[in-house]
């Protein structure tokens, strides 16, 4: 059963029981990504690491030519 079919079934059951419809699939995905990003930044600060720009700084170190 796909996500859409499950959502339609849940919506139908909610309507039969007079309950509110469930949220549509994917509706809260952006909020989840934001919360995950904030959590990772928080854990970085607690661990004493910079909270922003870590990936870019690491890539710059790898790509920068070394002086001989």
Keywords:
68 residues, mainly alpha, 0% strand, elongated
Descriptive notes:
With 68 residues, the protein is mainly alpha-helical. The protein has one domain (3-61). It contains 3 helices and no strands. The protein is elongated.
Q: How many beta strands in the DSSP annotation?
A: 0
Low-confidence runs: none
The fraction of residues assigned to DSSP E strands is under 5%
Total DSSP helices: 3
Number of domains: 1
Rg from Cα: 22 Å
Determine the structural class based on helices, strands and strand pairing.
mainly alpha
The portion of residues assigned to helices is 55-70%
Mean pLDDT: 88
Shape: elongated
Largest sheet: none
**H-E string:** HHH
**First and last CA, distance:** 60 Å
Describe the secondary-structure layout.
Blueprint: H1 3-17, H2 29-46, H3 54-63
In short, what is this structure?
The protein has 68 residues and is mostly helical. It has helices at residues 3-17, 29-46, 54-63. It is 63% helix and 0% strand.
């Amino acid at each position: 059963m796909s996500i859409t079919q499950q959502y339609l079934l849940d919506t139908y059951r909610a309507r039969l029981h007079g309950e509110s419809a469930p949220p549509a699939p994917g509706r809260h995905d952006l909020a989840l990504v934001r919360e995950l990003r904030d959590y990772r930044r928080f854990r970085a600060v607690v661990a004493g690491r910079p909270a922003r720009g870590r990936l870019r700084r690491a890539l710059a170190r790898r790509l920068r030519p070394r002086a001989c």
